[in-house]
Specification:
- The structure holds 2 protein chains of 2 kinds.
- Chain A has helices spanning 5-14, 21-38, 73-77, and strands at residues 62-63, 83-84, 87-91.
- By secondary structure, chain A is of the alpha+beta class.
- Chain A has a domain at 1-44: Histone, subunit A.
- Chain A is flat.
- In chain B, helix 5 packs across helix 6 (319-325), helix 12 crosses helix 14 (450-462) and helix 14 crosses helix 15 (469-481).
- The chains are: A alpha+beta, B alpha+beta.
- Chains A and B meet through helix 1, strand 1, helix 3 and strand 3 of A and strand 2, helix 1, strand 9, strand 10 and strand 17 of B.
- Strand 1 of chain A pairs parallel with strand 2 (54-55) of chain B.
């Protein structure tokens, strides 16, 4: 079973975007087509395969606990549409 | 508190900010009280194209903490993304650990009135802190918010207990013990008022004997031991009232209102949270071999329980003293430093738990910020033992040492506080007092015990507290019996 209208609505809420009824329909079709294309994997016998937790042959990539220069406040604010008192000005959110 | 036919069940989630040099996933330094947004980089600002790189020290601290809490250290763990949108979280997700945390199945012991009790630790996991939002007034009425992201990315350990506590007092003891362990390990400052140690409490009630847990409320904003205890008391009472009135409890998040001393529901629109956790593809798994664990184990310092045993066994201190002295590493270090130079542990303990603690509390200070040194307290205690100063004067000298950091020798000399033990000098004052207070002397002769105390007081007053109190007592009695 593919994604339903209510699934699309939930995703939209989580992503904080408003969708028109037409957009919902478009996205439902697109999502379902993506899901369908991965569904072929369901046909493979995976019960004897150990789950893969990480795809690359890498582990323990870490750095030493040494401070490097940060941005200045001016630099940090450079891309901010709004700022005040050296802080990013953002909408109230509850 | 009485809970009637109900039993309270409490579990705590504690977040400890670690005092590493740098953030969890970038090389920005940690800061408290710095210029806003001055300890930030493209990484912790969530700029596109940046990659997190794990701070090795965070893993070391987590292993250390896990070992101190008797946890099993995972051979294999990884980081997950917890997705939600909030302006204090620039990436739109928090890097955390969901189903493969670094430490599991631990415990710590608390000392209840009924004896030792083991509280289970479900897990300890690594994550990053969010930034800080500043509102004008409160969040409901502010026109907008201001974000300071200096704190974003600060390494945290989340330590989750089992629901093993049965009263607000036990919850407090657990948190006190956990805090002292973290302080002894040196992994966190644990300053609750500054938010470097934060606590949420899961609280429910159930009829005695029932195994199934009741519906729980999660209480947030508990930033002191007192707040935790009070909030738990309030919440248990509230839940009992709801059930007794035939109502139903709902699972919800509540906040502790310190001013009004109540918990308040934080339910906004009833949209169940959906964090859509998934493994963070930008961070590799962590594999922890036995050799790494053993290497960290070797660096473990003495922990509160061991220190407590040592104080009881080696110094013969009462358990009460041993508990108080091992609440913080700094206090214990001060005590040990002093005992190294003055080998009367009980006397040292009394001064550390008494005058020193009183002055620290009065000045709202931590012991490591105090000017007084363990060595100077030892010197003062020697002066007291030699009879150079009286117990009363010692308190004066101690306050001066606390305020100025001067040596007791210098204070005693400069302020002329040497105890008067010269018999003739004291006798002269005694005679003066007896002559000057005929009425009180009469009272004494008529058997009024209090009269002697008054006369002693007068002698001490005239000698500015410097007269040797034992000699004053003795000489007064002698002189009075002669009249």
């Amino acid at each position: 079973m593919g994604l339903m209208d209510k699934d699309i609505e939930k995703l939209a809420i989580l992503a904080r975007i408003n969708l028109t009824p037409e957009e919902k329909e478009t996205y439902a079709v697109q999502f379902n087509s993506i899901l369908d294309s991965t569904r072929v994997l369901d046909e493979l016998p995976t019960d004897v395969v150990e789950p893969l937790i990480y795809v690359l042959p890498l582990y323990n990539v870490m750095r030493d606990d040494e401070v490097r220069p940060s941005l200045s406040n001016d630099e940090a604010m450079a891309n901010a549409p709004l700022h005040e008192e050296a802080k990013f000005k953002v909408p109230r959110l509850i | 508190m009485t809970t009637g036919k109900y039993e309270a069940v409490i579990g705590l989630e504690v977040h400890a900010e670690l005092k590493t040099n740098t953030k969890a996933f970038c090389s920005c330094g940690l800061s408290f009280g710095a210029i806003p947004n001055s300890h930030v980089c493209p990484g912790c600002l969530g700029m596109p194209g940046t990659m997190p790189v794990l701070n090795r020290e965070l893993v070391e601290y987590a292993i250390k903490t896990g070992l101190a809490l008797n946890c099993k250290i995972a051979e294999y763990c990884r980081f997950d993304r917890k997705n939600y949108f909030y302006p204090d979280l620039p990436n739109g997700f928090q890097i955390s650990q969901l189903d493969l945390p670094i430490c599991t199945a631990g415990s710590l012991e608390i000392e209840t009135q009924q004896g030792k009790k083991t509280i289970g630790i479900n897990r300890v996991h690594m994550e990053e802190d969010a930034g800080k939002l500043v509102h004008q007034g409160n969040i409901m009425t502010t026109p907008y918010s201001l974000a300071d992201l200096n704190r974003a990315g600060t390494p945290l350990l989340e330590i989750v207990s089992e629901p093993d506590m049965r009263s607000p007092q036990e919850a407090r003891m657990y948190l006190e013990k956990l805090r002292s362990i973290l302080l002894f390990l040196g992994v966190s400052d644990c300053r609750m008022e500054e938010g470097s140690l934060r606590c949420d409490a899961n609280i429910s009630i159930r009829p005695w004997g029932q195994e199934k847990l009741g519906t729980r409320a999660e209480i947030k904003n508990l930033n002191s031991f007192r707040a935790l205890e009070r909030a738990a008391e309030y919440e248990i009472k509230r839940q009992i009232e709801v059930l007794e009135e035939g109502g139903q409890l709902v699972q919800e998040t509540r906040t502790w209102d310190e001013d009004r001393q109540v918990t308040l529901s934080m339910r906004s629109k009833e949209q169940a949270q959906d964090y859509r956790y998934f493994p963070d593809p930008d961070l590799t798994p962590i594999i922890i071999g036995q050799d790494w664990i053993e290497r960290v184990r070797k660096t473990l310092p003495e922990l509160p329980d061991q220190a407590r045993e040592r104080l009881i066994k080696e110094y013969n201190l009462p358990p009460y003293d041993a508990n108080l002295l091992t609440m913080s590493k700094d206090v214990l270090d001060f005590f040990d430093g002093c005992v190294a130079e003055y080998k009367e542990p009980k006397a040292v303990a009394n001064w550390v738990m008494g005058e020193l603690t009183r002055l620290l509390n009065q000045n709202n200070m931590e012991i490591k910020d105090a000017k007084i040194s363990p060595s100077s307290l030892a010197q003062m205690l020697k002066l007291l033992e030699q009879g150079t100063i009286s117990g009363k004067i010692a308190k004066v000298v101690f306050e001066e040492m606390f305020a100025t950091g001067e040596s007791p020798d210098k204070i005693v000399k400069d302020r002329g506080l040497v105890q008067i033990s010269d018999e003739s000098a004291i006798k002269a004052i005694v005679e003066e007092v007896i002559t000057g207070n005929p009425k009180v002397v009469e009272d004494f002769k008529n058997g009024k015990g209090k009269a002697l105390g008054f006369l002693v007081g007068q002698v001490m007053k005239i000698s500015k507290g410097k007269a040797n109190p034992e000699m004053v007592n003795q000489l007064l009695k002698e002189e009075l019996s002669r009249r």
